[in-house]
Write a structure and sequence with these properties.
alpha/beta; 6 helices; six-stranded parallel beta sheet; single chain
C-alpha cells in the first residue's frame, strides 16, 4: 500500500511500479481524489481515496484515524509512505494498527526531502525530533540522494 498526499504524485511517482507489483500481488495507492485518480485506476492500479492536508493541524488526528481505518479494512502486509507529513501519519497509524492487532505491517518511508530543512529555529528542531522519533518505528528508510542519507546517518536514523 503506497500512501501519498497528492494524486498527481501517485500518478507520476508510483503508478508504474505499482502496475509491476500488481502482476503478482495487490498494491493499492492511497491518495486524495483529483484529476489523476482516474488515470491511475485506468492503468489497472486500485486507488483508495484518502483526504490529507499538507499542513499540520487539528485535522492531523482525524487523518491518522482515517488511515488507521483504511489499514483495518484492507490489512496490508506493507505500507510505503512518501513525504514528511504522509510519512508521519502512516508510521503512527501503522504503529497503532500493529499494537491493536498484534500484527506487523512492514513500514517503509521514502524521504523526499526533510521538512525541517525548509524551516528554522524551534520549528526545525521540533520537526527534526519528530523524524528521529518516527525512525524508531520505521522498518526501512529509502532516500532520493546521498545528502539525505548522510543527514539521517548523522542523526542516528539509519538503522535500516
Amino acid at each position: 500500500m503506497d500512501i501519498l498526499s497528492t494524486n498527481q504524485g501517485a500518478y507520476r511517482l508510483v503508478k508504474n511500479r505499482a502496475k509491476v507489483i500488481n502482476q503478482t500481488h495487490t498494491n493499492y495507492i492511497v491518495c486524495p481524489e483529483g484529476e489523476f485518480t482516474q488515470r491511475i485506476v485506468d492503468s489497472g492500479v486500485p486507488v483508495i481515496s484518502y483526504d490529507i492536508r499538507r499542513e499540520l493541524g487539528i485535522s492531523t488526528a482525524k487523518e491518522i484515524r482515517d488511515l488507521f481505518r483504511i489499514l483495518e479494512a484492507y490489512r496490508p502486509d506493507a505500507v510505503h509512505s512518501h513525504n514528511s507529513k504522509t510519512g508521519a501519519i502512516t508510521r503512527v497509524a501503522a504503529y497503532l494498527y500493529n499494537k491493536k492487532n498484534n500484527k506487523k505491517i512492514l513500514v517503509i518511508h521514502q524521504v523526499h526531502g526533510y521538512y525541517f530543512n525548509g524551516v528554522s529555529g524551534l520549528k526545525s528542531n521540533l520537526y527534526r525530533w519528530i523524524e528521529q522519533s518516527l525512525a524508531h518505528i520505521t522498518d526501512i528508510l529509502l532516500f532520493q540522494n546521498q545528502t539525505e542519507l548522510a543527514m539521517s546517518q548523522n542523526m542516528k536514523m539509519d538503522r535500516h
